[in-house]
Fold this sequence. Notes:
461 residues; 19 helices; Fumarase C, Chain A, domain 2; Fumarase C, Chain B, domain 1; two-stranded parallel sheet; Ribonucleotide Reductase Protein R1, domain 1; mainly alpha; single chain
Amino acid sequence: MSYKPWDGRFAEKTDALVEAFTSSIDVDKHLYKYDIEGSIAHSKMMAKQNIISNEDAKSIEEGLLKIKEEIETGSFEYSDSLEDIHMHIESRLVDHAGDSAKKLHTGRSRNDQVALDVRLYLRNETNIIIDQLKSFLDVIVNFSKKHIDIPVAGYTHLQRAQPVLLSHHMMAYFEMFKRDMERFKDSLKRVNVMPLGSAALAGTTYNIDRELTAELLNFPEVSKNSMDSVSDRDFIMEFNSIASICMVHFSRISEELIIWSSSEFNFIEISDAFTTGSSIMPQKKNPDVAEIVRGKTGRVFGNLMTILTLMKSLPLAYNRDMQEDKTPLFDTVDTLKACIAVYKGMLPNIKVNKENMYNSTTVGFINATDMADYLVTKGMPFREAHSVVGKTVSFALSKNKEIHELTVKELKEFTELADEKLFKFLTTESMIERRISSGGTATSNVKTAIDEAESYLKANS
């Protein structure tokens, strides 16, 4: 297991400390099946182009499949002396395929080989994440349908602002995660580009057929520039960027669930299955899952900063620094998938405290804007109405009352336009149902949004 492809150039053995320091096998062994898939396609292409014989290609494929089985059954041996997954597989292939194995690396380099492996990996994982997000969007829609009749205070600056339907609030997250899913789908255009055949940086002298390799690996496009092919990690930066945006959305919804489940709000109760207790305080029920998701956002952000910093000063073409691209990529993939999975389980099992949510829409002068709107219907300019209502709020505060608890006589101290009809404008139901502008919180609008969301998910199933 000490074979090195550059042995011919070096008179001294690599120091064991250097072997351990430069080894990436603990990380990139996760790419084994993609490395094998790419190598089989490469050998088939070379046989078609008469670069190697059909017998060699067959022997190579059989050997690679045996190695795949060894890795998956746990019998494959790893060693720092072989650095990476490519050299491990190539070294072991000699045992299975003999001299045929030594022909596999014809017309390629580890530079374009690893670029291919990572693209195959990320294409597969991105499609998994897209499917996961699609399922989570369905969870949000079902939650919104189930709670279509529940009003809750909407907030700005974490201050009560105006009442909305809980379903309207949750469908805002549908839009966020839908954008995330669309971003991931669009990013596949940049991932789905076949780099193999670029060799180390300048291409190869062999009569390879890159289009055939791309066809065998289901790539719709072949990279255009060999130097860019081996040094491009934009697609990793883009993935980590999209994942970071997606984690922002998970962090935001986590923050709200944490606040809403507090005793001060008591809007929701998160299922026991998705909470934990305290080692010292018996009464505690902590929203740990939501908190951990919120915390993992920083982890994903850090991975984005890692890859951006890694690439920012690298000259063309490949540099060994780029070995460090996989840890932040793999970790982001695993972290995001875990967060989506746990939310798919947690959200449907949240218990909503309907009474407390409704009560939040009746206090805190949440109907002040609606009083101003009423005065506008009576002919008062909005800015004047805004001032009148502001004075009314100040007066109500001094009396420890809400606007709708004042008498008509008290209201008339600020405007003669106040009358009994005003109070109908100030109910929670009226405030919600009159917000009929496109995208507003009126029940009919929210039901339409849910219907459109279901149609979208069905069309993208």
